[in-house]
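Q: Could you fold this chain for me?
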Amino acid sequence: MTVPIVDITHREDFSAAHRLHCDSLSAEENLALYGPCNTLHGHNYGVEVTLRGPVDPVTGMVINLVDLMRVMREEIFDACDHKFLNEDVPWLVGLVPTAEVLAIAFWDRVAARRSDLGDSEMTRVRVIESRNNFVDYHGPS
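A: Sure. Below is the predicted structure, expressed as structure tokens.
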């Protein structure tokens, strides 16, 4: 019998401020590139992490979602909620905190905790910056 493979996703939400600004560009270049996002502003972010794996015939689960929730809260929510991402989150300092950069950073944080997530494979991190804008990262190439 073939064991079904399932994608399972957990979402966490947090509020944070950021400023899109690249120190290697001039003030004029930053303003032209990032527009109003070059000023301090905030978002109510959503972050989704998707794992893929076989459904355990005994438990009926790929992974206990409580474990994924705990990792996401410890690695993302606790570090980022109600923070200024540019300065208050050590692993984001020096980066331009675009949704793309956040997705990669969040992937790295969760991937570092793979031993807490069983035999599943992480396949996607989605960062939702607004109702109209989101980024999907599927891991390193």
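A (continued): The domain at 5-137 is CATH 3.30.479.10 (Tetrahydropterin Synthase; Chain A).
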